[in-house]
Write a structure and sequence with these properties.
Its cofactor is Zn(2+). The protein has about 950 residues and is of the alpha+beta class. The strands form 10 sheets. Strands 27, 28, 29, 30, 32, 33, 35, 38, 39 and 40 form a 10-stranded mixed β-sheet that branches. The model is unreliable at about 1-15 (pLDDT under 50).
Length: about 950
Amino acid sequence: MKPTYSPDIDYKGTMLRGDYDDSITPPADILGFEVGYRVASSVQITQAVNTWQGQSDRMKVIEYAKSHEGRPLFAVFIASPGILNKLDEIQSDIAKLADPRSTSSGEAKAIMDRLPAVAWMAYSIHGNETSGADAALASIYHLIADKTDANKKLLDEMLIVIDPLMNPDGRDRFAKSLEQYRSTAPNVDNQSLLHRGDWPYGRTNHYLFDLNRDFFYLTQPETKGRVALINKWRPQLMIDGHEMGSQDTYLMGPPREPLNKNIAPSVQEWAKKFAVDQSQAFDQEGWRYYTGEWFENWYPGYSNYAEYRGSMHILYEQSRIAEDGVRRPEGTVQTYMESVHHQYVSTMANLNTLQKYSKDMYADYWQDRQFLVSNKSPYSDRTFVISNTTNQSRLHLLAEKLLAQDIEISVTTKALSFKKALNHLGKRVTANVPKGSLVVLNRQPEARLLSAIMEFDSELLPSVIEKERQEVLRSGDSIMYDTSAWNLTMMYGLNAYTIDDEITANVAAYTKPVSAKNILNKDAIAWIVDGSDDKSLAFAARLMERGVQVRVIDKSSEFNQQKFARGSVAVTITDNVSNSDLITHIQTSADELGLKVSSITQGLGDGELPDWGGDHFVLLTKPQIAFVSQANTSSYDLGSSWWSIDSNLGIRHSHLDGNSLNSTDLRRYNTIVVPSRWSFSKSMANTLLDWVKQGGTLITHNRASRALNTHRENAAVRNVDQIFEDAEDFNIALQRRILAEEAYEVTDKLFASGISSEITYPWAGQGKPLKKDELEKRDDWQKLFMPAGAFAAGSTDQKHWLTFGVNQTLPLLYRDQAVLVANSQAEIAVSVGVYEDLKEPVEREDYLSWYALPLDKSLHVRMSGLLWPEAANRIANSAFLTRERHGNGQIIMFAGEPNFRGATWGTNRLWLNAVVYGAGFGARYNINL
């Protein structure tokens, strides 16, 4: 159904104003409508670009990726034929200019004199923010077809790269919803589904990732291909066309504070000059706009990551207008074509500004690159060191992400020790790192981006912190648009240090490791893969999919003089005596994952370590996995968890409609994951809890954990605001856990025959417990200050199966999420806070919250990001990951989202342990499919 005309809306005319070449097909002849009249689908955009590529010598198309659903992503290079014929030479010159260590100032001047300006114009990374991609079509046509002298001069002096279709999967999802909700008469009500679309909406890609948060995490194919091409061309200008609320106007750069200090000052100055020209272009049209206000540049994971590499970045935010137009507060109707026109005019204005200032911008770029590699650089005398680990998959994945950003890496050639190294807890320690540790000098050409993603804390101005706190108190809102912590080593859960020196001795250039080549001993009694490597879970899961019986060793072990970490995966001949394809299955699974398999010929563990017939060899149950999905579910959390299953494990699973669980046969599944969701009905809770009683493993995230607890009475795990009536019971449970980790001094008094009057109780001297009303008031106050995203220090129970493959101290990304506490009837696998012994005991008058701190200890909570003391106090000693028995099954609760943006590999390992091993560890559930 095509939209019909409305007397309220002016559809006449077009934004394209030029003297156009008749040999270039106008967009309307390809689309069937004028640009901006309707939303062009990804197929139509691709068709237009392919048509024009065959007609014009002013453009060249490079496909840089395919989406998960198989749609092409491409960059359109536009310039005069003379420039397009020299792309290889231009790219070589750009690479030389980027590295002053091998380019002289004289050579650099010659390069800058001959280089064209380079612009990268990108649109609609959020699929339901459609006007940008349509403006890209208009821009491509204008640039290749316009015959005016001004346009010819522009193309003689500039290489313009247009990325018109950044998220084709999301765009087509939204375009389909437009078709579904289109009516005969135009609908200008922005609350209508015509304008909003359906859950999970078109913003995200196939796996429901926000691609505009993935520019250094690099998890999705769209981003990987895009970043590789952007980095190759190092554009002077990069724009990113978005949309915002329907009743808004138009936002353009420059951004306001907080600004990341790693962005070059010259880039920030150029932002002001571009804003002048862009605003004048809007003034000439009589269009309203604003700069900054809500947009800041602190988080470096947007498309503005290119600013840290020296590009000038501009954000466009156009009010979101669907095809029928939207009635504005002043009573007028803004059309979709007008929205597209705004993006088009912005594009041309920015290109004209770049044409004017390109040479000066190159000069600033060259000067900054020289500065970055000099000994005067603020990045000199600083090195990031990431300790080598037996979890080789995760270590080398981090190296892969750094190399993708042209960041140079070395490895230590022997074990080294560094004094006064800064660790993740912000403490100066002696760092002993093994051979093979990653070494990353901060003084290198990409020093700014490297610092932004690897420094443990991003510095905020005191004035910004003051303003943030005032805003939190005034309205409960934040002036910061995204998470305040993102350090890659913390995201990956790897031990890392900052060294105040340049480490150049005893290091060698990093090389990617070669996958293990396994020759299996067919006469072995067992085959083992070390459990410290994340890929061991995929090995176990894929073997179970192939009908192999698999065990996990829940304690460190040693066989045939080979040591294995707890969580190692073992396949025994006795479990699989009738499987004639056993060796083939083991070989195939290991080769797919690049894992080393050890063939074991002895079942007696060396020393006191486990033997192969004991309880420490736990037989797994093949997971039959389902996600609870659809409305009320966080699409981001669902998507990243879904992607984790597919990308890490590659095994089958189902998505269930959460609104119809009562009519779903849950007996088909032994593992159900409930991602964060905004509501949890009583009937839904009862359905799941009844299923758990029969032996199921229920895994809940964030709000789902919090919501489920509201439907459970006397549960062992509760929300913090549910325990104030009996807070002291939970405090005693906490003291038990703390003391269980302590050494116990055996004295003669232990064997005395009389009654001792010197028994010390853990709460003695810790102050007075707070009463319920005081706890409630404090909690209400502390809630105001919960972070948008900060790293808290997590302590992991290294004897629990859920913590296979993670360190004792694990960074936990905390947001405004569930705060869980548990009594002694539940198992806490990960808690918030790292205890440290004090030199002198400290007595306190009152408990800090529901808990008391031991007199002889301090508790470290914050690792990175803005974590107000009130919030740190609230989450301290809470549980991030719990396991609780319920009937024959178990409930595993995460306080947060363990798969945040597909990049929190430390907590992702916890989640994969729960998903793959949960049905075998702690649940008794038998199903036959």
